[in-house]
Amino acid sequence: MNTCEIRKRYLNYFTNLRGHKKISPASLVLENDSTTLFTSSGMQPLVPYLLGSPHPDGKRLTNSQPCIRTQDINEVGDNRHLTFFEMLGNWSLGDYFKSQQLPFIFEFLVNQEYGLGLDPRRLYVSVFEGNEEVEKDYASIGIWKEIFNSYDIPAEESLTLDIGSANRNARIFAYPASKNWWSRSGPPEQMPIGEIGGPDSEIFYDFGAEFKLHENSKFKDKPCHINCDCGRFIEIGNSVFIQYKKNEVGGLSELPQKNVDFGGGLERLSMVVNNQQDVFMLDLMQRFVRPIEAKYNVTYLSSPKVDTSIRIVADHLRASAMIISSGVTPSNKEAGYVLRRLIRRAVFHASLLHGGHVERGILPDIANLELDDYPIQLKPWNEIKEVLENEVGKFEKTLATGLVKLRKRIYNKQIIDGKFAFDLYQSDGFPFELTEEIAKSESGVIAKDALLVFQKEFKKHREISRTSVAGMFKGGLADQEERTIRLHTVAHLLQSSLRHVLGKHVSQKGQHITGERLRFDFSHQSKLTEDQLKEVEDMINEAINQDLVVTKQEMPKHEAIKQGALGFFLERYPEIVSVYTIGGDANTSANLSAFNSDGWFSKEICNGPHVARTSEIGHVRIKKQEKIGDGVIRLYVTL
Hints:
Blueprint: H1 3-17, E1 21-22, H2 47-50, E2 60-68, E3 84-93, H3 98-110, E4 123-128, H4 138-150, E5 156-157, E6 170-175, H5 177-180, E7 181-183, E8 196-206, E9 233-246, E10 252-265, H6 266-273, H7 283-296, H8 304-325, H9 334-353, H10 381-411, H11 418-428, H12 432-441, H13 450-472, H14 480-502, E11 508-513, E12 518-523, H15 530-545, E13 550-556, H16 557-562, E14 576-583, E15 600-605, E16 621-629, E17 632-638
Helix pairs in contact: 3-4, 7-8, 8-9, 8-10, 9-10, 11-13, 14-15
């Protein structure tokens, strides 16, 4: 059963048999969410509804959510970790709870007709052992015993975590909060005030007692338990019972409703369905592995070093394609930094497979692969490839010189400290993580405080740069937050003006706003002429001079589109969206040619924030333009 069939069966089970409504997945990059760089779980966009707000699609929801988990980047290289993955999810928002959720998910896993047909004798479960505030999850223990017994499988709670010495009928294992409590921040003591979470119950698949560890495995002489990482057991699903919120005095308070938040990794489910212990042997990863084998004339599963590099290139290429499709470009900040780190790590390992050489086109071409079966819309391969190639071009010039410096230090047995790592980053573009990885792989010695010193040097450099910029603009950053909001509204005026001057084919491809400027990317084949630039700029400033009202409405996504609202990267938005309209009020003087028949100048789906009236913006100037790709133009706009 391939991954597409597994995804389809899961969604069909919960929509057709269990009364759930399928909802659209969120974007990998949640707009205006400063709490996280990427979506790493399906529940992130649903927090307001888990807290009690009614969801427009009801109390039972399901979807398949694409995710990026940055903490797994350094783990990629083994046979099971991925940076990008899909999480199958179902939620109960104050509807059903443990007594229905656990039988639901177990039935899906083992049913032959409409589920995955797993052998129930290979399944084990974990529960929360309790702490000072929340008692042991006796309810789940009792439910699990009934479920296993209904399949004629004797089930008892284990008296020990060691699977080798557990009682014969042990199926249920109790773990502390570090393993069986879920919140976005970790166990209860790490949850900030207002964070929601609760105990969970995980399901594990056993590849069998005959499972053999590699002779060099760090787990070889350690006792095995169902939630260890030796490889014999693999977690395939987690039912989280979100019923608590961290309160102001540091304790836990009950939420007004009890929620279920289930997450099951699609790739991991595909592994167990196909009895495959290596995620890179699955159909969805082989489509990346095969071009790598052909590109570098290597064979997967031929040697540990080759395998590690193939896995890293395959995973990072896949994750990068997804991130680029979400509108992110490589940079030295936030999501852009993660993307840069992924690409450069992929390039380094590609160079190992390529005989140590780095050149344009070093990454394999996946143009002929079918990338249209993901829940998110991907950009055409030529657009993804252009971003990759631009980053490779920047890195190829410095990778060779950086490697010489680093290897010289390793050869001379000099400690690699944080100052050296930062200098390597500043001069040769080596992310700290790449310096650390290369040093470890080549038996270099890294100072214990290297990362801390690197971060201090980075912060010092950033403060110097910020002071310099502030001086250049003579205090222009005195109210950066206000300027950012003004420029956010300018982006809407710019979009509308471009579409009026150039045509309706113009659509936003990305934007980045700081206190100094708006950077706006859009679809158009060639640079604008001087006359076109002036016409766009004049149109924006005329809209500003007319003091148009900016209004916000919330409505279903399909209704917003029906009303003529522009929507770009629609997969990022929930089913109920905010629509910002500029103009259209009774006092509008509709003498601008860009006004539509309803009297508004711009109407867009957006999360805000925006000014209340366009007169708050001030005068706008288009400073410069660039062609950054095939059919993509970039404008820089200032106030």
